[in-house]
Amino acid sequence: MSAVQRVSVVLPTLNGAATLPALLAALGRELAAGRGLVEIVAIDSGSSDGTRGLLVEAGARVLDLEGAPFGHGSARNRAAAAATGDVLLFLTQDVEPVGDGWLPPLLEALDDSRVAGVFGRQVARGASPEEEFLAKVNYAGRPRRLTGDDLRTAFGPGTTLFSNAFGAVRRAVWEAIPFPDIVMSEDQAWARAALEAGYEIRYEPRAEVYHGHRFGFARVFQRNFDSGSSLQALGLARGAWRAGAAHLLRELRWIAAQHRRSAVPHAVVVEAVRMLGFQFGRLERRMPRPLARMLGEAPRP
User: What ranges do the domains of the chain cover?
Assistant: First the structure.
């Protein structure tokens, strides 16, 4: 890539007024610093809480779905198509960059023409113990260089291929390999396609954002139902039981040591719900359509 990289932020939003101010402040500092960021392109799904006003005030260009159903891949693709940058920086509305040195490491990785995309570290803040441990496993402190060889490794905790919650993609690669329109894990599907095409993907932990969740049991089931459905369709769900059991044992030891032993039973229930949702999701295409739509957010169309 050339020394001057024009970076466009691509940002899906829906009622994000509670978390957007911190993110937009960080992006505003980066725009002022002149290190490559040139624009924010948001695509809003009908916010009613002041999200649009915050975006406009921050100088963002705000697109609408215009009646089309929201899709994690299709919405990002539409906003990316409207962006002008050589690099597309995908963010979610609830991340907050850590410090002011988070963008250069991402751009450095893209200096290598073999690299299709790079994703940064997500540091759990305000997350449940279960989500905090998962973030530590998926976004550890050591950099990773992913190639097609990594597709031979069973997918599971610690083997994330990419994340469009905080990841940058070379625009030319996105034009050739856009995100697929699937219910969830569109970033994993994109990464697999890029790796199969001979590109590399980098994980750069020097680039950090805060990103954490606390989900109730119903939401844990729903998210993992959708994840299981998508990963089954992508052929990435094999070995889920073995990987899940190994992850659970490590997680329970960590929670007992870092939090309190009384938190362990709750974690067992959360992980049971997570695995149950995932396994039901793997069977989604065999279910009656009404049942699938009741269990998941947006099963097959």
Answer: 7-210, 217-295
DSSP-derived 3-state class of residue 20: helix
Q: Which residues contact 260 (CB under 8 A, 6 or more apart)?
A: none
What is the torsional sign of CA 41, 3, 190, 30? Answer: negative
Instruction: Determine how many CB atoms are found less than 10 A away from the CB of residue 278.
Output: 23
The model's pLDDT over 162-207, given as tens digits with 9 standing for 90+, comes to: 999 999 999 999 999 999 988 889 999 999 999 999 999 999 999 9
Mean pLDDT, the chain cut into blocks of 10 residues (301 residues total): 79 97 97 93 95 97 88 95 98 96 96 97 93 95 96 87 97 97 92 97 98 93 92 82 84 93 93 93 90 78 52
DSSP string, 182-225: -SS-HHHHHHHHHHHTT-EEEEEEEEEEE------HHHHHHHHH
CATH topology of domain 7-210: Spore Coat Polysaccharide Biosynthesis Protein SpsA; Chain A (3.90.550)
> Which residue in this structure is represented by tokens 């032993």?
261
Report CA 279 to chain centroid distance, whole Å. Answer: 21
Q: How far is CA 180 from CA 77, 120, 193, in A?
A: 9, 21, 10
**Residues 6 or more apart whose Cβ sits within 8 Å of residue 68:** 74
User: Looking at this protein, which amino acid is placed at residue 203?
Assistant: Y
Is-contact 60 41, C-beta < 8 A? yes
* 190 close to 249: Cβ distance less than 8 angstroms: no
